[in-house]
Amino acid sequence: MDRRKLILVLVLVIFAGAAGYGYLHQPPRRTVEKLKYTTGMRADVSRTASGAQDDKRLRLDLLDRDLPRFSGFKRNIFRPIFSGDMKPSVMPRNPVKPQLPVPLPPPPPPPVEPTPAQRAMEDVGRFTFLGFLQKENSKTIFLSRDNEIFLVKKGDKLAGRYDVASITDEALTINLAATGEQIVIPLMENRALKRR
Question: Judging by beta carbons within 10 Å of its beta carbon (0-12, 13-18, 19+), is residue 97 exposed, middle or buried?
């Protein structure tokens, strides 16, 4: 059965249900013993003709009546309602001074920009010292950051910006290219690089 036939059957079922419901729930018919008017019976014209004649007749006698003259107004609708009850308002002798607005607190000071040395310590502080290797007269230190291991020796760049000036058993010294300042960082195994 295709879709059109299914829709047609569904509509027919709904129609049959509505027709059955309407038939079963119709109001009962009422009957009377004798009808008031039967077919072919003459209606009483005298009552209906007089009522209709009164409605269609123009009564000019109503225009000839003398109407009483306007005697004037009895009340002024524009008069103030509380004219006698109004008392002048008394102004206080000491007028209230307006309150001055509360001054707003000063804005917070702008954030202090970190110095180049502080920025360098933030960058270098992400590295963890793992140990060092001494081969001949050169020392190489092992640093880790984000699960990567870096080998750093004298003359290399640390974090891509800072020149390594010297490496000893206890400390790492870096140069800041912008200011020429040297920073000494103590080396402790398995700890992040921090200044004392």
Answer: exposed
Given a contact cutoff of 8 angstroms between Cβ atoms, the answer to whether 126 and 145 are in contact is yes
Residue 8 has pLDDT above 90, yes or no: yes
By DSSP bridging, strand 138-145 and strand 128-135 are antiparallel
Residue 33 has pLDDT above 90, yes or no: no
pLDDT digits (tens, 9 = 90+) for 97-126: 778 888 889 999 988 888 888 888 888 888
**Complete domains list, the chain, with CATH:** 126-192 (2.30.30.830)
Do 115 and 180 form a contact (C-beta atoms < 8 A)?
A: no
Euclidean distance between CA atoms 158 and 192, whole angstroms:
14
Specify the DSSP class assigned to residue 8.
H
Over its C-alpha atoms, the chain yields an Rg (Å, rounded) of 56
pTM: 0.42
CA dist., res. 75 & res. 81, Å (int): 12
For residues 99 and 114, give the distance between their C-alpha atoms in angstroms, rounded to a whole number: 44
Phi and psi at 56, nearest 5°, equal: -95, -10
Of 141, 132, 130, 131, nearest to 174 by C-alpha is 141
